[in-house]
Amino acid sequence: MQALDLALMTERYARLERTHDLWRRRLKLGRAMRWGLRGAILGLAGGLAISVAATFAQALAPEAYLRLLILGLGLGGALAAALALAWPQPPLTTARQLDGQLGLQERLSTAVELRRRGWAGSGPMARLQLEDTLQAFQGSEPRAALPVRLDRRDLLIAALLLLTSLLAMQLGRPAFEAAERQQAIDRAVDAEAARIEALRGEIAEMERLSPERREALIQPLQTLEQQMADAHSPELALAALSAGERELRELARPQPRVLTDTLQATGELLSRAPDQDLAALGAQLAQGDLQAAVETLRQMDLLPSSAAHAESQARQLEAAAETLQAAMPELAQALREAAASLRHGDSVASRQNLASAARALEDVSQQVLQAEMAASVAEALAQAQGRLLRATGETTEAGEVAAQGQSGSQSRLGGGQPDGAGASQGQTGSNSSIGQGEGGGAGRGENAAGVTQGSTSGNAPIAQGNAPGDGGERPYQPLQPPARLAGESGIELALAGSGDAGELVLGVAGSAPGAEGAAQVPYTAVFGRYEAAVRMAIDNLQPPAFMEALVRQYFSSLAP
Amino acid sequence: MAEPLTPDQFRANAERIEGELTKLIVGQHEVVRLVLVALIAGGHVLLEGVPGLGKTMLIRTLGQVLSLKFSRIQFTPDLMPADITGTEILIDQDGQRSFRFQPGPVFANLILADEINRATPKTQSALLQAMQEAVVTVADTTHTLEQPFFVMATQNPIEMEGTYPLPEAQVDRFFFKVDVPYPSTDELDQILERTTGRELPQVEACLGGEAILAMQSLARAVPIATHVREYAAHLVVATHPERPEATSLAQKFVRYGASPRGGQALILGAKVIALLSGRYNVAFEDVVAIAPAALRHRLILNFDGIAEGISPDQIVAELLEQVSRSKQ
């Protein structure tokens, strides 16, 4: 082929190539759109399959369902379109494709092949072929011949899949609601776990407590945190909280208020003492300033001016010891020994005994602090159980309202408030009723939908007077602490507290037979037995796990 | 050296030949076109049709139009090979005797082998070497035939008594086998009008052997894309029943598939068709257009095929339908 012809053909082929490139891009765009739609269909189908599976496993909220569908749709479409755009398309392949689509009768692919061979051996026919191709190629209308449009079948499939998605969403509504309830419960559990962690942090930074006592408080909380993390159901979380609370209640024994009130009563007793040192000690104890009292006691050096004075001081100490005997026997013993030393005029022994009493008081102080902290944490755990129960009850309530009409009878467990809020087990056909609620709602809880009969126990503090057969319809008689523990012949007592339910009632003297119908045994004494019986019942798993918190809460509310 | 033929001249020549032929041949455009294609591609044609359809007239007219040396051989059962190829004859000249080769009718440019299936296979085979190699060997002497050399044979499909079907090897040497259809009523009416009048149409010789050879050369220069060529190859391969690519009809009813000559005929014929269509490359449709003529006589049916009355054209039609172009 002559050089002139070659140059001419090169120029013509360059024109052909430009047009070819333009149309290749159009082909690519069309392909990307088609494959994008197919990818979107695949993504949507995958998302739908996963969503439906997760929905029926009650593990997906509607928002997550939609997100998953949109993610599948978008990701599948984008990936497929990107892949189609990036997929290499050799010019010869697109030339053949264009030949077919534009009706070029293999002109373009022949021209491309001839160019690849460098038009070798083609002679003048190659030039004619190239010009013919160029003419035919440029005469074609790409918009008409290569419309960038989507496959109707693909569109139909996509529409069907979208409809199926919506239908599945509609059908999966009960499952969505169950999932939402579960998520709300999980959130509540997580929130409680966070609170427990915060509590543990506070305890760890509490320098007033000795490291051993701090550790004693932290250890159950750590265990509880772990259990909460592993808890996959509200029942497990409640059981863990209940166990933690129980452990901390043990640490809070004796009750800190018993100790502080005993010390306060002792302080008030001592503050009336004629001896200045003892009066000062009494004032500090009465004010609850135990650290100052420890220091005062440690530095106290009772130097009686006379035997009568010594006897007076000894009696004061013995009276104080008597007050402390029940709650703090070691301190009481140290004070008695100090009193005895005073009577014997042994000032050295007296100082030593007072120092022992100071150590005992310091120990009591730590004990009080630990017990206060333990009680506080236990209370927090009890509240956590209440919150968790409420969260469970609220979500269940929502679920029940939504599911009304599907089940004719549901048993209800939980607070017997008139609005029926409480944890519901959803057991059908159960009509037994246990427990009661505020306002005489035993066994009857009304909600917006009507009266629901079931096994219901209130989560609010419930007073005594819930006699069997009452059906909870008789008003409760409030539990009142006895005004005079030892009866008519007893010692005059200064009873702490207002007498309100749950208020601490502290007896400072031994019990004595009283008149019939009057309280003869200190409330604190009987409560321990009751609580022990309840604890044993809980330990034996007699009440259901999710009821445990409620029972404990009930007895906590009665705790002196 | 003469100027090479241009594609425009090629088309003009072809149109002139067709124009002259159609003066005498009414209708039969497809037959005329295929005969012309085979002539330009350098192949031979076997025309098959009932008597009176103008087969002989077509070929005789072609001989007149091309102003080439034309000879007609009427094949009969007693025709001998030497009657075709020629023979050594004893010459007594000036008292000296010698043998001299007397060329037979095969030594022409256009051969009309009329009713070829009436001769014995031995005589039919006398054409084999001439058709394939354009040479004739007689008494250890090889004589080259003049180019262009074009054999057009006719055969009658209905009078089978006393006929000798062409052997496969010889059939394969025909570039195309063209079925001559019965004319339509209108065409028949035209035939009657033209042939029963006082004056018969006269054809003019318009092209010589040089022009035909130039056309043959130009046709071979037409480029063909790889995938189109592969398509033709797949068509041929798909006729072989033992090949996995074979179509279902081919697997069931074909004993032997098309030979490589079938593929050559597809490509060469398609190139001529492309040029005649004003294109400078071969398209799929060119291959499709000549596929029945190029393949039908190369498919040897088995007993089932013959018994069930399967025609090779049905098998070719299925081939064209099933062999994918997109895979090429």
Commentary on this structure:
The complex is a heterodimer of chains A (560) and B (328). Chain A is mainly α. Helix content of chain A is 66%, strand content 1%. Chain A has helices spanning 3-56, 62-86, 91-102, 107-116, 124-138, 142-145, 152-171, 173-204, 211-230, 234-251, 256-271, 276-287, 290-299, 307-325, 329-343, 347-403, 523-539, 545-558; strands at 444-447, 450-453. In chain A, strands 1-2 form a two-stranded antiparallel sheet. In chain A, helix 10 packs antiparallel against helix 16, helix 11 runs antiparallel to helix 14 (307-325) and helix 15 (329-343) runs antiparallel to helix 16 (347-403). Chain A is rod-shaped, with a radius of gyration of 43 Å. Chain B is of the alpha/beta class. Chain B is 46% helix and 16% strand. Chain B has a five-stranded parallel beta sheet with strand order 2-5-8-1-9. Chain B has a two-stranded antiparallel sheet with strand order 3-4. The longest helix of chain B is centred in the N-terminal third of the chain and has 18 residues, at 7-24. The model of chain B has no long low-confidence stretch (mean pLDDT 86). The chains are: A mainly alpha (560), B alpha/beta (328). Chains A and B meet through helix 4 and helix 5 of A and helix 9 of B.
